[in-house]
Amino acid sequence: MVGFTRSQAGGEPEWLVGWIGTLLFHQEAAILFVAMAPILGHLHSAFLNFKGGKGVATALGAVLGVAPWIGLTLMGIWVGAVVLWKYSSGGALVAFGLFPIVALLFHQSWLFVLFACLVAILIWSKHTDNLVPPWSDPYRRIGERRCDRGVPR
Predict the structure, then answer these.
(1) What whole-number distance in Å separates Cα of residue 42 and Cα of residue 4?
(2) CB-based contacts of 113, cutoff 8 Å, min separation 6
(3) Residue 40 pLDDT more than 60?
């Protein structure tokens, strides 16, 4: 959740970017464009050869700034999925997979729902490597030690 509170590159809180966008701009399209900028910047960072990093946390922070209740709902979904399956990336995929549905349930505009769909597609496209069967999963679960997977310390 580092990107949620502070960006690795610049040190600015992403929720603040979304919130300032809502204060400065009065058109929803401009606000969502401002909120999308840090998400794209973290998912396709020029400093990381356009491979990305901290995009999920940045997206969550941007959503919290633009639509706090939706952001809190996504955070709750993420936490619930992580508690259930012990995979942070799985929690992120569940939360952002449900983002467009959550936006619809909160009666957001079609433009916001489109924003939610774009963010969900971006997050999912960057995390396709995390979609592996549990028996061949190379990732450790949260709380699992290295030796629990047969890997010596």
Answers:
(1) 12
(2) 100, 103, 104
(3) yes
Residue pLDDT, tens place only, 65-115: 899 999 999 999 999 998 998 888 888 999 999 999 999 999 999 999 999
- Write out pLDDT tens, residues 110-133: 999 999 999 999 999 887 776 665
Specify whether the backbone of 26 is left (phi greater than 0), alpha (psi in -120 to 50) or beta: alpha
Per-residue DSSP letter, 140: P
Quote the pTM value: 0.73
Burial of residue 126 (number of CB atoms within 10 Å: 0-12, 13-18, 19+)? middle
- Per DSSP, 98 falls in state S
Long-range contacts of 142-146 (CB under 8 A, 24+ apart): 142/82, 142/86, 142/87, 142/88, 143/86, 144/86
Run of H or E including 44: none
Which CA distances in Å does 105 have to 33, 70, 98, 101, 108?
Answer: 22, 9, 10, 6, 8
In order of 3, 80, 82, 84, 152, the CA distances from 94 in angstroms are 18, 10, 10, 12, 31
